[in-house]
Amino acid sequence: MTPGSTHAPQRWGLIAGNGRFPFLVLEAARSQGIEMAVIALREEASPDLEGLAKCLHWVSLGELSRTIDLLHQEGVTHAVMAGQVKHNKIFSAIRPDWRLAKLLFSLPRKNTDSLIGALARVLEGEGVTLVDSTTFLQPLVPQPGVLTRRAPDEREAADIAYGREIAQQIAALDLGQTVVVRDRACVAVEAMEGTDETIARAARLAGGGPLVVVKVAKPRQDMRFDVPVAGLETVEAMRRANVTALAVDAGRTLIFDLPKVVEAANAAGIAIEAFVPGVSPSSAGSEEPAGPATSSTKGVA
């Protein structure tokens, strides 16, 4: 379903967590003439959403029945889930209503993928299709290539190749999607704390030495939720931690403020490259390094 198609639904919904993601989706949808009904998670979403959304309802994390009722009330048939919900809150800090409690009890595995996948199925059963969270933000999803002024050097390329192999295995276990590497040794692995805190922890462990950050999608990444993201805060965290290169998965990573991220990385001397998902640089043969992927930033507001 493409937002601008003649068969587009009459009503779109946005289930909003924290961060800038919900704001970007709302603005991009509005630029295409679509006004979204927003269901904002009280424990996560920014109050500033009220100034942007024409229709907004607040719900708590555990209020699944009320969320469904509000989606029906607003006539929503297609919804986007955007914005982080902290993993530790999902399973420890919510008071589930009867419907969510029943769903949690039925989960074979108590992880984020299982929970949100089950939520998506519940919404489908209620006539609400949860769509790819990057549907409205394709210009912010980089294609394969070097995004910055410089490509990773020989040391960084070796760490990226090693890091991608490790990160893909970690992601397959649904433990995290980011690893921090130095001299082909894994310094830190992301768990529930998030990318920026993982980078800060790696800096403490590395004692100031140069680091490389590798972020990957899961092998069967569901683009409806938990999409790998990076932004200006990530670049600042890398700068403070003496990270000299960032590798991401092309086509599966959302980079907020992509042109500004590239500009900030260039100013900090950080190389950023997007790789074909699942293909490690060491197995890519002896091809020449890709040139700057300037096409990735075209059309970004």
- Overall morphology: globular
Give the neighbour order of strands across the main sheet.
6-13-11-9-7-8
How would you state the average pLDDT, rounded? 87
According to CATH, what is the class of the largest domain?
Answer: Alpha Beta
Please compute the radius of gyration using only Cα atoms.
20 Å
Oligomer: single chain
- The CATH H-level superfamily of the largest domain is LpxI C-terminal catalytic domain
DSSP summary: helix tally: 9
Structural class: alpha/beta
Largest sheet: 6 strands, mixed
| Count of spatially separate domains | 2
Indicate the CATH architecture of the largest domain: 3-Layer(aba) Sandwich
* CATH level-3 fold name of the largest domain: Cytidine Deaminase, domain 2
Q: Report, as a whole number of angstroms, the end-to-end distance.
A: 23 Å
Give start-end ranges of low-pLDDT stretches. 5-9, 283-301
What fraction strand? 15-25%
Give the SSE string: EHEEHEHHHEEHEEHEEHEEHE
Helix content: 25-40%
β-strand number: 13
Strand and helix layout:
Layout: E1 12-16, H1 21-31, E2 36-41, E3 55-59, H2 64-73, E4 78-82, H3 87-92, H4 98-106, H5 112-125, E5 129-131, E6 145-146, H6 154-172, E7 178-182, E8 185-189, H7 195-206, E9 211-215, E10 229-230, H8 232-240, E11 243-249, E12 254-255, H9 258-268, E13 271-275
Parallel strand pairs: 1-2, 1-4, 2-3, 4-5, 9-11, 10-12, 11-13
Antiparallel strand pairs: 6-13, 7-8, 7-9
Helix pairs in contact: 7-8, 8-9
